[in-house]
Design brief:
Elements lengths: L13 E3 L7 E3 L5 E3 L11 H23 L6 E12 L7 E12 L3 H14 L1 H7 L10
Antiparallel strand pairs: 1-2, 2-3, 4-5
Helix pairs in contact: 1-2
Amino acid sequence: MSELKIRTRNTGALAVMPPGDLPTVTTPTGGTVDVVTQVSAPGFNPLDLLYASLAACMVLSARIAATRLGVADRLGEVQADVTGEKAKDEPSRIETFNIKLEISGDLDVATKQRILVDAEDICTVSNTLRGAPVLHATLG
């Protein structure tokens, strides 16, 4: 089993919404994404960003899982399709996340299933969503 190397990175997000405009979100490392709200507008809305975080984390975690299992050399493309179901009661929230992980490569079904299970355990985003984190909101 390979050893997990932990590297630190500045994380976080700053959303700025000028009067009469839509938010732009930036990261401490310089990433930028414009947020949309119209149903037909191309781009990410806040829920898309949440789903995107989970999807990206799952595919990256699948690669880590394959490395730990010693099968990374046989791992092909990994896709995570993430959707959700909104709760019908208050407060407004996503009640269920659905993750469909597709793994290509020279791997049997049992190995792909193991990668899926391990990836979900490795993924910081899935662990956070399962853990009901505490939120602190303050005025700046």
